[in-house]
Structure formats: C-alpha cells, structure tokens
Design a protein that fits this description.
The complex is a heterodimer of chains A (about 270) and B (about 325). Chain A is about 30% helix and about 30% strand. Chain A is of the alpha/beta class and about 270 residues long. Chain B is of the alpha/beta class. Chain B contains eight helices and 18 strands. In chain B, the strands form four sheets. Chain B has a seven-stranded parallel β-sheet, with helices on both faces. Chain B has a five-stranded parallel β-sheet with strand order 15-14-16-17-18. At the A-B interface, helix 4, helix 5, strand 9, strand 10 and strand 11 of A face helix 4, strand 7, strand 9, strand 10 and strand 13 of B.
Chain lengths: ~270, ~325
C-alpha cells in the first residue's frame, strides 16, 4: 500500500486576462474578479493527476490518495472535485491565519498537517502556485520532513521500493531514482487532471471531509515570518506605438506584404 | 560582508545568465560597499574563473569534488552550504536556471532563511540596506516587492533582467579553491540518464525566435515554423499548451515557467498572448503577431500584425522571405 499526500491550493483564476485583474494595494491582496470562480491551482491539479496515474498503474487497492488543502474561506464544493476524480480523502486546513505570502509559514502548517496524517510514502505538490508563483513550498516540506525532493517532474513511476522520476531541464529531462518516502513537485507536462463523471461529482458532494483548524495541527507558536511583502502592484502598461496591421488580398498575400514591410523596417 | 554570485558554465564558457547576475551583483555589492564574490562548482570551474573576474567578481571560489561533476542537489547543497557558512555573505544570487530554481530554495530552508525566486528587479533600500526584490506574481498580472528579514538574502534572477558588464580581462581578482566535504549518506537521489531534446541555437541566445501556440495543433505545423526559423537563422519556441500537449519539448517553452527571451525579432504564430507567456517575450525588440482572432491580446504587444489563417499567412511570408535579396 502506497500512501500519497497531494497538496492542493485554491487560487483565483489568473488567466482571466489583465483587463479583469484587480488588487487592493492597501491590504496587498488580489481581488476575486467579478463573475469568476476560484480554481484549483493548475500545477496542483497536475500533481493530483500524477497521483491518479500512479494509482492506475498500481491498482486501486494498492494506493491511498489524501488531498490536503489550506487557506481561508475555501470553496468546499470546488475542493470536492478532488474526491470526484478519485482521491480517497480530503483534509481542509482552514483558519483565518492561513493566508500568507511567506512560503515558510505555509510550509510549517502543511508539515504539521502531514505529520498528523501520519503515514506517507509520497508527497506531491505543484511546482508552483498560480497566485504567488513562488515555487518553494515543496522544497520546504521535504527539508522539514527530512525526505528527498525532486522538482519539476514530468513523469513519476514506482518500481518496487523506488521512484523513477523524469525532471524537466532546460534542454530536455533528467531521469532520476530515489527511495520513498519522497516529495516531488509536479509540472504541467504530466498532463491535465482528468474530468470527473457527473455521478462521481454528485457522490463527492455527500462524502465526509475533515476540517482542521490551526490548533488541530499545530500546538507551538506561530512561526516567525522570514520575508516582508513590501508592496503589491499592477505594473503600468508600457506605452508602445499601436500595432501596425498588415493586409493583403488574401491571407497568403498578407504574409507576403508582412515580409516586405519587415524588410522595409529593417527587421529582416 | 559580501555578495556571492553562483555562476554556471557550459563547454568551457561562463553562461550568459552568469554574466548578467555578475553585472547586477557588482552593482548591488558597490551599493552595499562590500566585495563581490563568485562561486563555480565542478570540473570546469577552474577554466572559467578568470572569466568571472573579467565580468566583475573580486574573488572566485572553486568547489571541486568527485561528487560534484554533475548537478546533484543534495551534494551541491552541502557544498554551497559550507561555503556560505564559511564566508557569511549578506546576499546570495543565483540565475533562475534549472540549478538556481532547485538549489536556492533548498539552501534557504536548510540555512533557516528565505529565498525570493525569479526576481526581475533588485534594489538596495536606502536606510535599511536590505534588498527590495521585485518579482511577478499572479501569473504575471501583478508584481510584488519582497524584503527578506533573515540572512543571507537568497534570490534567483530571471534572465535578461540584469545587464552584464563589458568583459574586461585586465580586471584583477583572486581565485581560491575551497576544500569541501560531502557526506555521501545524505545523497538520496541518483541521476540515471540525461536526455537532450533540444539541439542547435539556444533560445535565450537566438536573435530571431519563431514561436507557436495552441493553434499550431500538430508536429507538422511546428515543422513549418522550424523551417522559417532556419531560413532566418533563428530558432523555434512555443507557448505552454504545445509543450503540455507534447508537440514541443518543454525546453522550448517561453514564459513564466519556461524561458525568457529577448531577441531582435519575435514572431508569434497562433499565440493568443496570455500574461504568463508575454512575461517570457515582452523584452523582445520587435514582436510580430499572426493570429486569426483580431481581438487576441498578443496584438496589444506587437509592432506588426496580420489577422488570418496562420498557415496561409506563413506560406506567403516564408516564400517572400526566401526570395528577399541578401542585405
């Protein structure tokens, strides 16, 4: 039996386009765009997909997938999607203080929760969150749990007691081997999270989930902050001259004219 | 007190990224009034030490050990940790590279400090003398300025955001080999195979990049882009969807989670212009966009654009480019 813990963060949808993105500079926080729903961090969805792929290869009885999600005022219905696609257990860490741009606090709390879960052979995280884009939490969890860490995986396989992981590099990938327990951060190349069936979605809404507050996981005092978020702002749009549109009698002709125009402008 | 820059090399040359962070590191070290140190790891280290001095370092530390021949995170982290403990730098700078984005957070956690990854701007606060580290957040829609409370302040810097100094071979500096001991029992991961999927001109160094998005749709489509790229003596790139869809290797991805490029000419074909992609190409001298959607965000950032079916546009474009007289 392989116990897999997947850390999943709920984030605002950052791909709505810059025109809809708003933030409050005073409290240093993005505002949820009107009409848009929060989403699961796409890289964390990839991590969950990687867990499900491992389950597919081992057989359903040979693995247990526990999803842990941390934040404040979380949309439970959204998180239940993880159960609908096949996770066995969902643990929600919810407390007003679980909101930080400081990766180190996040790590402390997640580690406390993983320790409370108790058994883990594999911990999976997305390579980074779509909101903070920090890319650090996985490393921190591994460091605190004193387990090996492999970052930016595009493929994970279990072979006996060992993990075989393909890690993305700038010109290809490395094939690495390590022992369990281990932590792996997952990249989008693993593949998108599968869709749940309507039946599974309905069943997931009825499933029991565990909600842990700060005092349920962490008896010691709040870890001190190591970074200060000094300022959060939307960068001003650099004023560029408007795009010059090149035309033609048809698309092919437009392509020809584009080449001639670029030559004229000294770009070719 | 000092600023330490982690330098990387390949084929006996200092990487472009390393020259950039040496340039930026030099500026920070001068503002903080302390020396700029560099560290090079592995067998090639001694070969490029003089180059690091020519690009701005005062002292170059060489860490060589049989276990440091290939990047192995647990071995490298031990070695750099020993160096940091010995010289106690205030600031440690990495490039946002395969090694930097992997090693910097490991060191931050093991040294009980913090790392700020993917910085695009770094300044010194006038009074506190702490670094103000700016990096994109929310998928590039916003920017955050972080100040690290603990020492050393560890950071990685995004490509093309710092300027290298002009190489000056008459600069004087010291090269110091440092003995490191590596506990093999702490090495838990083994490299089995290194697979290279990307050959030819490096994306970061190319002067022309022909880049394709979701709309390209097939490997054969990317072949057309590749064909144009080779006529223009450039290379081909991609946004995230084709890489996730395995049409292109991840090494070709341009954007927040891929590479940052700043070529003379960036031809974006069937790319809508998502913020995280633009973060990887916005510094290009000229962006040319081909897209069938006249409302595509990419046109807001392009200097020239054509609205139309990319295959037909590219056919006409490529044919004409081939026929252009050599200048």
């Amino acid at each position: 039996m392989i116990n897999i813990v997947v850390c999943v963060k709920q984030v605002i949808d950052t791909e709505i386009g810059p025109a809809y993105f708003k933030l409050d500079e005073e409290v240093k926080r993005a505002l949820r765009p009107l009409g848009s729903q929060p989403i699961l961090n796409p890289f964390d969805e990839n991590a969950l997909e990687a867990a499900l792929m491992i389950r597919d290869s081992l057989g359903a009885q040979q693995s247990k997938i526990t999803v842990v999600s941390m934040g404040r005022r979380l949309a439970k219905a959204l998180l239940r999607k993880t159960l609908a696609v096949g996770a066995d257990d969902l643990i929600v860490l919810e407390d007003d203080i679980f909101d930080s741009f400081d990766s180190y606090k996040t790590v402390e709390w997640l580690v406390a929760a993983i320790r409370r879960i108790g058994t883990y052979d594999l911990v999976l995280c997305g390579r980074q969150a779509a909101d903070t884009n920090a890319g650090q939490v996985g490393f921190g969890i591994a460091e605190m749990l004193e387990i090996p860490c492999i970052s930016a995986a595009r493929k994970i396989e279990i072979e006996g007691e060992e993990l075989i992981v393909e890690r993305i590099t700038s010109d290809g990938y490395d094939v690495l081997k390590t022992s369990m327990p281990a932590l792996i951060t997952v990249s989008s190349e693993v593949g998108e999270l599968r869709f749940p069936t309507v039946m599974a979605l309905r069943a997931a809404q009825k499933k029991e989930i565990r909600v842990w507050k700060r005092e349920d996981i962490c008896s010691h005092s709040i870890p001190p902050q190591r970074t200060d978020l000094v300022r959060l702002f939307i960068p001003p749009v650099v004023s560029k001259t408007a795009c010059e549109m090149v035309d033609g009698v048809d698309a092919e002709d437009a392509g020809k004219n584009l080449a001639l125009r670029l030559r004229e402008a000294g770009l070719l | 007190m000092s600023t330490l820059v982690y330098c990387e090399s390949s084929e006996g040359r200092l990487s472009t990224m390393s020259t950039e962070i040496l340039g930026g590191g030099r500026e920070l070290a001068d503002a903080l009034g302390h020396p700029l140190l560099a560290v090079l790891v592995g067998q090639e280290a001694a070969l490029v030490a003089d180059e690091a001095i020519a690009f701005g370092a005062d002292i170059v530390y060489i860490l060589d050990h049989p276990l440091l021949s290939d990047y192995q995170p647990e071995a490298y982290a031990q070695a750099i940790e020993q160096l940091i403990t010995e010289i106690a730098p205030k600031v440690v700078i990495f490039g946002q590279t395969d090694v930097g984005r992997d090693l910097a957070p490991r060191l931050a956690f093991s040294l009980a400090t913090a790392a700020v990854l993917g910085c695009t701007e770094v300044k010194v606060h006038d009074e506190s003398k702490r670094l103000l580290q700016t990096r994109p957040v929310y998928g590039g829609n916003a920017e955050a300025v972080f100040s690290t409370i603990t020492d050393p302040q560890i950071l990685t810097v995004q490509g093309k955001s710092m300027m290298p100094l002009a190489r000056d071979d008459s600069r004087k500096g010291q090269v110091l080999p440092l003995e490191v001991s590596i506990d093999e029992s702490r090495i838990k991961t083994r490299l089995v195979q290194r697979v290279k999927e990307v050959e030819g001109i490096k994306l970061e160094d190319a002067s022309v990049v022909v880049s394709g998005g979701r709309g390209i749709g097939s490997k054969e489509g990317f072949q057309m882009l590749d064909n144009l790229a080779s006529i223009l003596k450039g290379t081909v790139g991609a946004s995230r969807p084709p890489c996730d869809g395995k049409l292109m290797p991840s090494g070709k991805q341009i954007g927040l989670t891929g590479k940052v490029v700043a070529p003379e000419l960036y031809i974006a074909v069937a790319i809508s212009g998502a913020t995280h992609h633009l973060r990887g190409c916005a510094s290009s001298k000229a962006i040319v966009a081909i897209n069938r959607d006249p409302e595509a965000n990419i046109f807001r950032h392009a200097r020239f654009g054509v609205v139309g079916d990319w295959r037909k546009v590219l056919d006409g474009f490529t044919m004409t480019v081939k026929a252009l007289p050599v200048e």
